[in-house]
Predict the structure.
Amino acid sequence: MCGIVGYVGQDAVQEVLLQGLEKLEYRGYDSAGIFVLDQEKEGHLFKEKGRIAELRKIVDHSIPAHSGIGHTRWATHGVPSVVNAHPHQSADGRFTLVHNGVIENFQELKEMYVDEAALVGNTDTEIVVHLIGKFAKEQGLSGKEAFRAALGKVKGSYAFALMDSEEPDTLYAAKNKSPLLIGLGDDFNVVASDAMATVQITNEYVEIHDGEMVILTKDNVSIETIAGKTVERDSYQASVDASDLEKGTYPYYMLKEIDEQPAVVRNIIQQYQNEAGELVIPESLVESMLLADRIHIVACGTSYHAGWLGKHFLEHFAHIPTEVHVASEFSYHPPLLKGNPFFIFISQSGETADSRQVLVKVKEWGYPTLTLTNVAGSTLSREADATLLLHAGPEIAVASTKAYTAQIAVLAILSHVLGLKQEITSDLDLVHELGMVANAMESIIDEKQHIGELAKIYLRDTRNAFYIGRGLDYYVSMEAALKLKEISYIQTEGFAAGELKHGTIALIEEGTPVMAIITQAESASHTRGNIEEVRSRGANTCVFAMEGLERGSDEIILPAVHPSLAALLAVVPTQLFAYFATLHRGYDVDKPRNLAKSVTVE
Ligand code: F6R
C-alpha cells in the first residue's frame, strides 16, 4: 500500500517519477505527489487528489531538476486530500519526506516533539518529517544524522525516502517492515517500493533490509544500519520483463490477466517439471513437509480462498491433515500446536503485513515455513525457509485472477509430489490433467462475449447477489463473491449451498441473482435442490455446471476436467462475470475504490 519512487541522476526527474508512480498506482491511488529539487537548491512540490493522471496535469516539466521523490497514497491516517498527500515537509521546508507504512507511536512523538500549530494535515508521516527538521535545527545535525536520530524514535512500519534541500544530489531512504529496494543505473540510482516502478530504466537491484538506511547519489549507494554499521550487499537482476507490465491492446489489466491463465498454468507445469517430464519440488522441502503431521495454511483474501483448495489437495493427494487460517485472525485464536506442524504462507505479493506478522511469530516458535508467492525476493519469500514461485507474471489489476489459479496449480503440484513420495497419487497424471484444464480455460475464455451478456442480464442493476456451491464449489463461490463485490460494489455473498436455508435464504427476493456452481458429482443433486429452493422464492438463478452434470437449461457449461482441479476452471467464468458486471455498471475495473494491490499495513 502506497508506492514510493525516488531518483537521483542526470535525467529530467519529473518524468522518471511520474512514470514510476504510474507503474506503482496499483498500490494506492487516492492522491499522489512529487517533489523535485533544482540545482539552485530550490524545491518544487506538486500534490493532487486522485490518480497520477491528475498529478501529471499540474507538474511543471520545465524545471531543470535531476533529483526527486514521489508517492502514490492509500490513506491510513487522514482522509485523501491534497494536504494529506505526500510528500510532506518539515516546518522550515528544508526536509521533504514520502512514507509507506504506519507509525504506531505518532501520537506520542507529536506530543513530545512537534509544535501542533506547524502541522498542516493529519498524517503520521508529517510528524516524522517535523521530527527530522527539529533534530537538524536544534541539535545542529546534518540531514543524514537528523534522519538517523528520527529513525531511532519511530516505531511501526515504514519505507521512507527523504530529501534535504541543502543536498540536491543526495537521496536518503530507510525501511522497516514495508517494502523498498534500490535500483542501480549508469549515472543514476533509484529507490522504489517495487521493481516494477523502475524496470524501464534498470533491472539491477539491491535489497534493503529492515532497520537499514541508505544514502544514494548518482554514482554511489551506501547502506548502513540505523546504528551506523556499514552493510555490504550484492546486487541482483530482476526477472520482471518491462513488456509484461503493459496492457497492450487490452482495455484493462484484469481482462489481460484472465486471458493469460491458460498460459500461466502451462508455464507452471514447465517450471515444475524436470528434463524427464516429471513434476519436481526441491527434495529438502519434500523431506521437511513429509515430517509434518499437520499443515497450517495462512493467507488473506483471494490467497486465503486458494488455501482451501490447498487443504483439499494436501489431504487428498498427500494425506496430511491441513487447517486454513485467515492471517489477521491467527494471533487471536492460534491453533493448538503439537507434534510437527508445518506452515504454508500464500501471498501473491509476498508483502502482505497480516501474513507476515504470523510468519514472524511462527519463526519465533521455530516451526518450518514455506511461502508460495508470485514475487521472488519479496519479504515473505526471504523470511520463510523455502519458497515456491507462482510463475504467473506480474499481476497489476487489484482484483487477483491469474495469481489465484497459479496458487491452486502450484498447491496441486506440491501435494501431488508429496503424494507420489508416499505412493498415494501414483495413478494421477497431473501434467496431463493440468494441461486439460488449460485447454478448457481457453474454451471458456472464448465464450467471453456470451458470459458478458449474461453478466449484463443478471448483474447490471442489482444491489446484491449470491454465489452458492458445496464442497470444492463452495470454495470457488467464496472467491467468486469476493471478486464480484470488490470491483462491481454489488453486495455479494459466497455461501455453502446447504447452509442458505439456515437463515440467509431470508434475503432472497424477487429477482435476486443467485449463481450456482456445480462441478462435483457427489454434491450436484443437493445443490440442484438448493437452486430450486431459491428459484421458488423468486431468485434469478444462473447455473455454471460441468459437462456430465449439466441440465439443458444451465447457463454456462464447463468442459469436463479432473474433479479435484475443477476450481481452476470454474473460477474463470466468475472472474469474467465480475469483469463485465463492473464494465456494465460503469466502474474502473482495475482500480476499485478503497483498495490497493499490496496490503502492507496490518
Ligand atoms: C482480491 C485480492 C486480495 C488479496 C489479499 C492478499 O482480489 O487480491 O484479497 O488476495 O489482499 O494479498 P496477497 O496474496 O498479496 O497476500
